[in-house]
Design goal:
six-stranded mixed barrel, 415 residues, 2 domains, 14 helices
């Protein structure tokens, strides 16, 4: 039975001024090791959550929750498809689009690009690109005026500014008296957007859908219809429902499938980092084992006296379990406090460090996201602390069991 004497002696051993300062130092290192491990786990997992959330929001700000396409990249009856999709209770917005590849030329600069033809009034129903405009407005895209909206990095690479003209070259050919030439058309830059992802900012250009239809000779056809759902996490279910409800044979895809590699990689990295950083807590737990074993050796005479006064082996074991648990609890609480504080302020601390060092940690040309977001979740914080406490508790069992096996006669023979 666990009695107050075990708690009293265990706490006394924890806070007592030991004769062996080396044991005190190892005990402090064990506590700090647990704290560092817990803090690192909380910060890294929070940053990984932030990356996942930011990546999802930025991708869905430029794409859609689900997409309906036809055969051979052309959707002929897109109006009927739009009306049918809107009948689904979880579909809240639809917008047709035309998408193709081409090259933009300005002066001596040439850049590959993805051309997306949109209807500005409808596009706002499925994406947030209108809220990401740096210059100009999406409403400046008007049918027949051949205006174009460029990504920020694409405009910088070409060296163009507002109201300048760029030449769009597409792979379709035109037969002329001079021979077969690639088709091209001059467009006026009427807007610049910044999505926050280099993939879009450096390669995406938007024009009016009717201008795109004329340029690519699609007549009244489109590439597909983009859908916005009430709950984006039910996109797979809704896509499956639409596949059976739509009148005809269509390809229905959702954002989880189109960008599965990104989110699968983030999830795998989160699991891997959790396992790797948990080893830090494991090392601290091994230090705790060493600390308690040396404490047991140092306190053999005290243990022997307690045994002669009537303490049972289980009582002796409980004393050292209390001592090790207190070290683990203090280390875990310190780590949780430091981890929560750092995770909550990392978005402001990192820019300060970058400014002080004069360097950029996450280059936009290399990483999809060039800042360090954080999304701390209390459930994960409690889970990390629980794992640390369990590891510390398990680390106390062997030294405590060894203390309970001390024989009073052997320990007091040379006293």
């Amino acid at each position: 039975m666990f009695r107050p004497i075990e708690l009293f002696v265990g706490l006394r051993y924890t806070r007592a001024k030991r004769r062996n300062h080396f044991i005190s130092f190892i005990s402090l290192m064990s506590m700090l090791g647990v704290a560092i491990g817990v803090m690192a786990l909380i910060v890294v997992i929070s940053v990984m959550n932030g990356f996942e959330k930011e990546l999802r929001e930025r991708i869905l700000g430029m794409t859609s929750h689900a997409t309906v396409k036809g055969d051979q990249g052309r959707l002929r009856d897109w109006r009927l498809v739009s009306l049918s999709a809107l009948k689904h209770p979880e579909v809240v917005g639809v917008a047709p689009f035309i998408q193709a590849e081409g090259m933009l030329s300005y002066g001596q600069q040439v850049n590959g690009t993805i051309i997306r033809g949109i209807i500005p009034e409808e596009e706002s129903k499925v994406s947030d690109v209108g809220n990401k405009m740096v210059l100009g407005d999406m409403s400046s895209l008007k049918s027949g005026e051949f205006g174009i909206v460029l990504g920020k990095d694409l405009a910088r690479n070409l060296g163009v500014v507002m109201q300048e003209k760029v030449t769009l070259i597409i792979p379709q050919a035109s037969v002329t008296p001079a021979g077969v030439l690639p088709r091209m058309r001059r467009f006026t830059v009427v807007g610049i957007f910044e999505a926050g992802m280099y993939e879009y900012d450096s390669a995406m250009a938007m024009i009016h859908m009717e201008d795109a239809a004329r340029l690519f000779r699609l007549e009244d056809d489109v590439s597909g219809v983009r859908l916005k759902l009430e709950d984006m996490f039910r996109s797979m279910v809704v896509a499956r429902d639409l596949l059976g409800d739509l009148p005809g044979e269509y390809w229905v895809s959702d954002w989880t499938g189109e960008h599965a590699n990104f989110f699968r990689a983030v999830k795998m990295e989160k699991v891997t980092m959790f396992i790797i950083l948990t080893l830090i807590v494991g090392v601290a737990a091994f230090n705790l084992v060493a600390t308690l074993v040396m404490t047991v050796v140092d306190k053999e005479s005290d243990i022997a006296i307690l045994r002669t006064l009537g303490s049972s082996p289980m009582s002796i074991m409980g004393m050292f379990v209390v001592q090790g648990t207190v070290i683990g609890v203090i280390g875990t609480l310190l780590g949780a406090l430091g981890g929560v504080s750092l995770a909550a302020n990392i978005e402001t601390l990192v820019p300060m460090i970058e400014q002080a060092l004069g360097m950029e940690f996450l280059s936009a040309e290399v990483y999809y996201i060039n800042d360090l977001p954080s999304d701390m979740r209390w459930g994960q914080v409690f889970g990390i602390c629980s794992v640390a406490l369990v590891m510390c508790l398990l680390a106390t069992l062997y030294p405590a069991w060894r203390a309970s096996r001390v024989q009073p006669a052997e320990a007091l023979r040379y006293e």
